[in-house]
Design brief:
Length: about 170
């Protein structure tokens, strides 16, 4: 099931995912804002982690979602890479993600959520980069307004903000 409107989809030449062979990701040139570890095949840090800066994430498949959330008033526009695009870039193989915030809050998120819904790792809020104060630098966001059935406690608990890392289990 696909949802949300697309303001633009951008594909990157950073990594071609055409087979299951391990590949090396480009190295970040800016500050690292996301580290992915665990059951992945494509890395750029010590052969066991994938680090991303903002530019690397924005070079993946990007989606704008206009949605209301339980944590804000009114609808806002969020922009960021699709979760499934990030998982494809790192060659994620497993079925569960452990998403951890800067304050060490962690939630288990089925990888399938990113395949079934247009879940994004929001980097921008209403056209501006998300600060830590605004739930940034990354916010795992579901399309709540497009799919009201996602507006429930289980999905709310999976909607981690201030994300620093994802472990593929």
């Amino acid at each position: 099931m696909k949802s949300s409107f697309l303001a633009g989809i951008v594909f990157s030449g950073m990594l071609a995912i055409t087979n299951t062979q391990a590949e090396t990701l480009s190295s970040p040139t800016g500050p690292v804002i996301l580290t992915v570890t665990g059951n992945i095949t494509n890395t750029n840090k010590n052969g066991n982690a994938a680090e991303f800066d903002r530019a690397m994430l924005m070079n993946l498949e990007i989606l704008d979602i206009k949605t209301m959330t339980p944590w804000s008033e009114g609808a806002d526009i969020y922009r960021g890479p699709l979760l499934r695009s990030v998982m494809a870039a790192v060659g994620a193989k497993s079925g569960e993600l452990s998403v951890t915030a800067l304050n060490d809050y962690s939630a288990k998120v089925p990888k399938k959520d990113g395949e079934d819904y247009d879940v994004i790792l929001a980097l921008d809020l209403n056209g501006k980069p998300m600060s830590v104060r605004d739930k940034g630098p990354l916010f795992l966001l579901y399309p709540f307004s497009d799919l009201p059935s996602l507006n429930n406690e289980v999905i709310h608990n999976r909607s981690v903000w201030q994300i620093k890392s994802i472990k593929v289990e």
